[in-house]
Write a structure and sequence with these properties.
By secondary structure, this protein is α+β, with helices and mostly antiparallel strands. It has helices at about 10-20, 30-45; strands at about 5-10, 50-60.
Length: about 70
């Protein structure tokens, strides 16, 4: 039985690495999205013991949390 898998992509990190790997200054949004899709599918196919179905790709791009909390779960 295939496991449904969600992939979380940190947009800022992905775009920074994508630009440096592909030596790009200007990004084509359609090509970038297609390449991200293909990378996610390749990650799923690398599993040797189990098979995975792609459930969803969650793409987020936000600043790191900067506030300080002591024991936020009460």
């Amino acid at each position: 039985m295939k496991k449904k898998t969600a992939i979380l992509v940190d947009g800022g990190f992905f775009l920074k690495r994508y630009r440096s790997i592909n030596k790009l200054k200007n990004l084509d949004p359609e090509k970038t999205a297609k390449d991200l899709w293909e990378m996610c599918l390749k990650h799923l196919s690398q599993a040797k013991a189990e098979t995975y179905d792609l459930y969803r790709i969650f793409y987020y791009d936000c600043l790191p949390y900067s506030k300080k909390h002591h024991n936020p779960v009460n």
